[in-house]
Design brief:
Helix 9 (about 255-270) packs across helix 16. The protein has helices at about 60-75, 95-105, 120-125, 135-145, 155-160, 185-190, 200-215, 230-240, 255-270, 280-290, 300-310, 345-355, 360-370, 385-390, 395-400, 415-435, 440-450, and strands at about 45-50, 80-85, 115, 160-165, 165, 170-175, 180, 215-220, 290-295, 315-320, 335-340. It is an alpha/beta fold and about 450 residues long. It comes from Nocardia fluminea.
């Protein structure tokens, strides 16, 4: 099964009659049929479990999501939502989500609705058995939610959870790679922060100047470790004209020249002292303290940087740099919301929660408090929406602009997708931060990953 790539518009398939498969009703397959899970009665009490890795992050993340759930509970007093973070010990809670849900499935108590990363999409559909929403609640209901009460989803965001003609989730929170700048260090190094680097050659030059003239780190690219996953690495490779997996999903391509060149560029930054040897957490904490001049990062950490820089140094943002004359191609981070329950009442309650979490009012809170993109981008032009906030907060502008040429974070195929992805990123990390040979190291990882590919 192939994933449906985002287009400038979105085409929804006609609703199909539900056929067993835990969708709540049975019926014949008919392109004109509509979904049959019933609406909840006003006094019908339903309890659902919502698993979200955002609850594993302290501060603005958890506080914002608690507020969103509280708003939902006030509007739907008959639906009780128990929110929980993934079970696991990873420093990045998102890393624990799939294994957490698998363990709960084995125990017979999976969450009813879950926030799952786009890199898990293949596995989410085929192994976690996420429900096709266009069949579950009807294609028209899915379309109405995307169209919104006042503002529609950005076109390229609408289809990120589509696969083989069906919509399996509603994209919820994501970012594209943003180049955050410490303008104070730029000025100290004799650079003009009003002219941020637009290519990686320019980044290399600026990073070297910052490191030599200020004694601070020049740049940190948060795309090059296993903890960072591969969404941003995919963006770098795509921007250099390559891919990490072929478009037909039959072969791994992350040892091809474009990917090798990306790792060589980053390795050179480390070897020249322009990029410090730090893990992901150390990297973003150091930038937040004002110790690094530039950082390529998700806007999910924007609130951390705003807090760290306030009254201390000048935080700015710019679009992701490109490679020479090649256009930068941002990919998205983040996750969508998926229904896993087999119970019709819980499915309906889960859909009501998804609609609430992706509403205009919810995106106002998400954008203002966390820094994630408001996927209903019209809010940025709405007086009383996010216009006033956006006018006073230019940090989000590069992220919004990059939606126009964004491409999806592509999931690896099959049941061994995590080993394939992690093997690739282990190789990238070894090249960049441990000095391993780029071509041979990536080739060895590709060979190992190919053995894990699904056999046709």
């Amino acid at each position: 099964m192939k994933r449906t790539l985002p287009a400038l518009g979105v085409v929804f398939t006609a609703a199909l009659a539900l056929t067993g498969c835990g969708l709540g009703t049975t019926g014949t397959t008919d392109a004109t049929s509509t979904a049959q899970i019933p609406e909840l009665a006003a006094d019908q009490q339903v309890s659902i479990v919502f698993e979200s890795y955002s609850y594993g992050v302290a501060g603005a993340w958890t506080e914002t999501f608690n507020a969103l759930i509280a708003d939902f509970s006030a509007a739907h007093p008959n639906i009780k939502v128990t929110a929980q973070k993934p079970q696991g010990n990873s420093p990045n809670p998102a890393t624990d989500t799939v294994s957490s849900i698998q363990n709960q499935m084995v125990a017979g108590t999976p969450p009813d609705v879950a926030q799952l990363g786009f890199s898990d999409l293949d596995f989410t559909i085929h192994q976690l058995k996420a429900k096709p929403l266009d069949q579950l609640v009807g294609a028209e209901a899915v379309k109405r939610n995307f169209d919104g009460a006042r503002h529609a989803y950005a076109p390229r965001a609408r289809t990120l959870d589509d696969w083989d003609g069906h919509t399996y989730g509603v994209p919820f929170v994501f970012s594209t790679p943003v180049l955050y700048l410490n303008a104070s260090l730029f000025t100290e190094a004799g650079l003009d922060p009003a002219k941020p680097p637009t290519t990686w050659d320019e980044v290399t030059t600026a990073a070297k100047a910052i490191a030599e003239r200020t004694g601070k780190g020049g740049v940190y690219i948060d795309c090059l470790t296993k903890t960072a996953k591969d969404w941003c690495f995919q963006s770098l490779v795509r921007s250099n004209g390559g891919r990490v997996i072929s478009e037909d999903r039959n072969s791994l391509t992350f040892a091809d020249a474009p990917a090798v060149e990306v790792t060589e560029m980053a390795q050179n930054l480390v070897n020249t002292g322009s990029m410090p040897k730090l893990n992901q957490k150390q990297g973003y904490e150091a930038f937040g303290r004002g110790e690094i001049g530039m950082m390529l990062e998700t806007s999910a950490l924007q609130s951390v940087f705003v807090t760290g820089s306030k009254g201390k140094w000048d935080l700015r943002s710019a679009p992701m740099p490109g490679f020479g004359s090649k256009p930068a191609i941002p990919t998205n981070s983040g996750a969508g919301l998926h229904i896993l329950s087999n119970d019709p009442a819980k499915q309906r309650a889960a859909w009501e929660l998804i609609k609430h979490l992706t509403s205009e009012d919810s995106y106002k809170k998400i954008a203002q408090n966390i820094g994630y993109l408001p996927l209903r981008t019209g809010l940025l032009e709405e007086a009383g929406g996010l216009k006033e906030w956006a006018d006073q907060n230019p940090l989000l502008r590069p992220n919004v602009a990059q939606l126009a040429n964004m491409e999806p974070w592509v999931s690896m195929p099959g049941n061994n997708y995590l080993q394939m992805r992690d093997g690739m990123m282990d190789a990238v990390e070894a090249v960049v931060f441990q000095g391993a040979d780029p071509r041979s190291t990536l080739t060895a990882a590709r060979t190992a990953g190919t053995e894990l590919m699904p056999k046709s």
